[in-house]
Structure formats: C-alpha cells, structure tokens
Amino acid sequence: MDKISILGGKTLEGIIPISGSKNASLPILASSLLTNEASSLSNVPNLLDVITMKDLLTSLGINITSNKKMLQLEPSNIISTHADYELVRKMRASVLVLGPLLTRYGEAEVSLPGGCAIGSRPVDIHINALKKMGTNIEIKDGYIKAKVINKKLVGADITFPIASVGATENIIMAASLAKGKTLLRNVALEPEVDDLIKVLNKMGAYIKRRNDNIIEINGVNNLKGFSHAVMPDRIEAGTYAMAAVITAGNIKLLNADKKYLKSVLLYLNKVGAKFEYDQDGIIVQGPKIINNVNIKTEVYPGFPTDLQAQAMALMVVAEGSSVIEESIFENRFMHIAELVRFGAIIKNIGFKAHIEGCNKLNAAQVMATDLRASSSLILAGLKAEGKTIINRVYHLDRGYEDLEKKLSNCGANIRRI
Ligand code: EPZ
To answer: How far, in Å, from the CA of 23 to the mean position of ligand 1?
Structure first.
C-alpha cells in the first residue's frame, strides 16, 4: 500500500504543467464505441481511472495503443456488450459505456457501478432517460441489462431531475445515433461535457447546446473516427493553485485555462491570492494571511464539489471561522476526520462544515479516503510542521498525474515510500 511522506513548511515556487482533464478523457474514450473507424486522442493524462477505462474498452473489443499521452483507438469487429463487474467496480465512470453500446449495438449489460466513498451515486437518471428513448432495462444480479425495443433508440424530450454530469454525457452519446431529435433539459453545464460534444460533432453528430440550458441532438446513421486533444484539467489546476495559497508560494499553472475556473479564481481572490494571466497559463501568488471565506458547492459554473475538500484545507489555516456547505454529494466530508488529526478545528453538522481557522498545523499520519479528499491532505501536509504520512495514496493516483514530481519541482519535500 503506497504511502506519501511530506516534510511541511516549504514555500512552493515554480511551474506546474497541468495535464489533460480526467473527467473529459473518460467520456471521450467511451465515445470510441460509437464508430467503426480509428480515432486518436492526445493530451490524455496517465491516471489509474484512464487505465481502467482503457481496460474496459479493450474488453469490449477496442484495440488501444498508447505512446506517452497519445492514444490510438481501433474498434475491432468483435465487440462485446458486456461490461464486467471486475472492471466497473473500480470506477463509476464505467457506466459511460452504456449509452454508446446501446445506441450502436442495440443491447448492453453493464455492471452497476456501486457506490463509492462520497455517496451511493445511483444511475437512475441514466436509466430513466434510456427507457424514454425506447429501451427495456432490468437490474438483475448487480447488472444493468438493457435492450433497445425497436431497431434503434428513438429521440425524446427529456428533463433531468438533477443536472447530472454523467447522465448528460451518457444520453448525449446515446442520442447521437438515435432516430430523430432529442432535447435534454436541466443538463450539466460542465466544460468537460462541451469537450465531449466537440468530439462527437467532429465525428459527424449534430449536437448543439442552446442558451436556454437545453442540448439538442439530431440523430445520424453513423459516426466517423475522431482526432482530438483533451482540454486541461481544471480540478488539477485548482488544486495546485491552492498549494500556492497554503504555502504563500508562487506557482505558474502551465496550460491552465482561466475561463473554466471563474468561480475558483473569484474565491481564491477573496482568500487573498493574486493572479497574473499570460498566453500559456495562470500565475498564482499566495497571500501571507489566508482570509476566511464561506463556500457552497454548486453545479457548474458554481464552486465545484471536486475542490471542496481542498478549499477546506485552506480554511483550516485561515484567519477566523468559515462555513463550507456541500450540496452535490451526500457524503463528501470524509476528509474532516483526517484534517482534525492535523489539529484542525472543524464541526460537521449535516451538509455543513464549521471551521475555526488556526494558524498552524501539526504533521500527522493520515488516511486518504477518496480522490479529492486525499489531495486536501496533501495540501495540509505541505503546510504542517513536521513529517506527514498519507496512507492509501492509490486514491491520488486515480486523478493526479505525477503529483510528487510536480510538487517537488516547486520545492516541496515530498516522496512516495
Ligand atoms: C462527475 O461524476 C465527475 N466524474 C465527478 O468527479 C464530479 O464530482 C461530479 O460529476 C459532479 O460534478 C466524472 O466526470 C468522471 P453526477 P458523476 O451524476 O457524473 C446524483 C472526481 O473527483 N445522481 O453529476 O457521477 C449523484 O448521486 C469525480 O473527479 C443521481 O441521483 O456526478 C450526485 O449526488 C468525483 N442519479 C449528483 O447527482 C443519477 O443517475 C451529481 O452526480 C446520477 C447522479
């Protein structure tokens, strides 16, 4: 079980290259199931979740060759439509193969993703939408067993009860080869969805995001291969921006794109950070004093739930008290107990965390529980006096490429043991 050790108290200064977005890579990889032509995807981050998706697609019959960050995807003619539990249990985003398999092959058997540390994470919104497009679906033996009723899925007018990112992506892919027009209402506005739409339109789909929060898809008969470079990872960029803040450092986030980070940069500005922007990234100057600023996570373009744990690490050492409210997931406060081990003063009442800022943290042995919680422990470790050990760092490897290298290049005393 890998551990990471950090000797805290260093001021970070330097350049961190931001990798391709995990949450754009995963649905775009799944879209390779929609065509029988070869595709290529560049700027793909080398992450455990990407490896899991590659393994899943290979098991379904896509031949994948990769060199560095470029993937070549070649659909073979033996396609399986069974996504096995052994692979799906590792990553919830595996459910994103359901829409493509159904719309291209008329049937699919995908293991239920199961919950994860941050909540039960059901897929009812995905399933109800596919039923509306003409699919018989039953949940049996832990699998979603789906069969298109007529030859092809049929376009429908669908309103999502929650602006689910995954459901929006799954149904966009399903509708791209369906018969007729699909209207999706109350859709996710996350930029990773737009990166997927860009790829699908390159493949010959007709998808447009209307300015009334509706996505309109006109189904086509088939789709071509694609060539695309994945957008930069805004959550990775936000995480390292917070590393500059918590160490009062100065970090250039290479390739970070400020247009996807508006709510985060606004928040960090209130916290006291200063920014410079040039054509290849964002320079973040951390403040001497961290101001206490309340947060409520929202769907995009609000403050992202994927940066809530990291922001909490900042508030733990802010001047004064603050409240962080999590409104997207029902159990995304697993990092509180671990931050308290550093000496943080945090009280969790329902979906709110009440934080008393303290001016120093003591190094501790802590446990990563989920991907983004583990990055908040890294931030606390960078600040804490003494040697912090973080256990179960495989969680980190799911979403952060070369984390120790990127941080030690900026002066952090961090290593894997
Ligand atoms: C995506 O997950 C991201 N993952 C998550 O990032 C991110 O936290 C989340 O969106 C919210 O922004 C990927 O893109 C691979 P949702 P997703 O469907 O699609 C409920 C990370 O750290 N819901 O928007 O699974 C759900 O339980 C990961 O990179 C239903 O009730 O999130 C949650 O409370 C973590 N029924 C809320 O909606 C459904 O059918 C938002 O979930 C689907 C979702």
So the answer is: 10
- Domain closes at, from 229, 258, 287: 229
- Is the CB–ligand 1 distance for residue 16 below 6 Å? no
CA distances from residue 98 to 32, 55, 74, 114, 266 in whole angstroms, order as listed: 13, 16, 19, 15, 37
Reduced to 3 DSSP states, what percent helix, strand and coil does the chain have, rounded to the nearest 5? 35, 30, 35
Encoded tokens for 216 = 């309109």
Q: What is the mean pLDDT of the chain?
A: 96
* Cβ–Cβ < 8 Å for 174, 100: yes
Please count the structural domains in the chain. 2
What count of residues does the chain have? Answer: 417
Phi, psi of 320 (to 5 degrees): 100, 180
pLDDT-derived band at 76 (thresholds 50, 70, 90) equals confident
pLDDT tens column, 142-165 = 999 999 999 899 999 999 999 999
Residue with CA closest to ligand 1 atom 31: 122
Are 90 and 14 contained in the same domain?
no
Phi, psi for 37 (deg, rounded to 5): -100, 160
- What are the structure tokens assigned to 400, written together? 């952060």
- Ligand 1 contact, 92 CB (< 6 A): yes
Same-domain check for residues 267 and 380: yes
Q: Tens digit of pLDDT for each residue in 93-131?
A: 999 999 999 999 999 999 988 656 676 678 999 999 999
Question: Are 70 and 14 within one domain?
Answer: no
212 and 359 assigned to the same domain: no
> Which helix or strand (DSSP H or E) is residue 407 part of?
helix 403-408
Residues 257 and 365 reside in one and the same domain: yes
Same domain, 26 and 128: yes
Rg, the chain, Cα only? 21
Lookup: tokens for 51: 């490896």
**79, 116, 229, 389: which is the annotated catalytic residue?**
116
Flag whether pLDDT at 172 surpasses 90: yes
Q: Among 229, 255, 270, which residue terminates a domain?
A: 229
Domain residues for the domain of 256 are 4-18+232-416
Ligand 1, atom 27: closest residue by C-alpha: 121
Q: Give the distance (Å) from ligand 1 centre to CA of residue 412.
A: 32
Sole residue written with tokens 């600023």: 293
Cα–Cα distance, 94 to 364 (Å, whole number): 35
CA 161 to chain centre: 21
Q: Is 116 a known active-site residue?
A: yes
Task: Compute the distance between CA of residue 299 and CA of residue 162 in angstroms, rounded to an integer.
Answer: 10
Q: Assess whether 257 and 210 both reside in one domain.
A: no
